[in-house]
Amino acid sequence: MNILAIESSCDETAAAVVRDGRQVLSNCVSSQIEMHTIYGGVVPEIASRKHVEAVSGLAQQAVEHAGLTTADLDALAVTYAPGLIGAVLVGVNFAKGAAMALDLPLIPVHHVRGHIAANYITHPDLEPPFVCLCVSGGTTAIVDVQDYTHMAVLGGTRDDAAGECFDKVARVLGIGYPGGGPMDRLADGGDDSKYELPRAHVSGHELDMSFSGLKTASLNLIHNAQQKGEALDLPSFAASFGRAVSESLVPRTIHAARMLGYGKVAVAGGVAANRRIRSDLEAACRSEGFRLYLPELRYCGDNGAMIGCQGYYEFLAGHTAGADLNAYATRDIALG
Ligand code: KG4
What we know:
The chain is α/β, with parallel strands linked by helices and 336 residues long. It folds into 2 domains: 2-115 and 301-335, Nucleotidyltransferase, domain 5, CATH 3.30.420.40; 125-298, ATPase, nucleotide binding domain (Nucleotidyltransferase, domain 5, 2-Layer Sandwich), CATH 3.30.420. Helices cover 43% and strands 19% of the residues. The protein is built from 10 helices and 10 strands. The strands form 2 sheets. It has a 5-stranded mixed sheet with strand order 3-2-1-4-5, sandwiched between helices. The protein has a 5-stranded mixed sheet with strand order 8-7-6-9-10, sandwiched between helices. It is globular. The chain starts with a strand and ends in a 20-residue tail after the last helix. It binds 5'-O-[(R)-(carboxyoxy)(hydroxy)phosphoryl]adenosine (KG4). 5'-O-[(R)-(carboxyoxy)(hydroxy)phosphoryl]adenosine binds at residues 10, 136-138, 163, 166-167, 178-181, 184, 269-271, 273-274, 301-302. The site of 5'-O-[(R)-(carboxyoxy)(hydroxy)phosphoryl]adenosine (KG4) has 19 residues, from helix 5 and helix 6.
């Protein structure tokens, strides 16, 4: 079954063709990062306009790169939630029009379910159930993946997402947007215990997290140093920051995996590219005897292949939509 998948939830327009859920025939991504870098963050109106310009050509390119024609397609999958609403709407409306014109089924896909499915592409042997740490610019959640289309959030951030926290701190340091990658690289050779940064606990909810205190403490530390004319040891600051984020995420993920007893842990989303988090998870899973699944770096950030992969399993579960499909800025992963 060949699925043409469309993703436009934030600052990347993406289209891919995926066969039978796990074989990526093409994966085309058009990034808007250069445009948003000028403003230090995503400007929603610009993002929507750029998606409108890119989506049709990119979908055509994905079909061509797959060595197919539209006659070889069996369905269209599209991210319909969550995301910047104007941006998501562009993909949804394009997919609705294309599905109608080509007389193909339309499959709505939850963006975070797509991030989780990126692991199926990298690991052909991976099957639910497993625990997945989902960490991106908009999401920080520990998910119980009971089956391909049955999931429950076990815990998550009460405020900022981990990726958002990386981005805000990097912006104040002036090291680029999005800031996760530059912060990760800056930490090379740094002393991760030089700066004391907070790790928050949400009382009574052991799997919930909070990153706003870490963000504020980091920004205060940077501003205080600037005001006093003191130079920060940047690699050590970035290493201390990365450690604080990792020490919020990793022990909770391991705790959830222990509670559920699946023996399998996966990671998903843009922040899953972070080397500190990956190596802390590797060490923790090794000592617990859990198998760890990490997505390839090219499937960590937003892409169409992950939507085509999850779309296949949604289709098998009978989850298709009609021309009345709507887009949503927020939506529980459990609802699909
Ligand atoms: O999954 P993604 O591409 O988009 C969303 O669905 O949000 O994630 C983007 C986020 C950004 O916040 C970016 O700074 C972060 O992923 N990110 C990283 C790294 N690479 C990207 N964060 C930490 N370390 C990285 N190496």
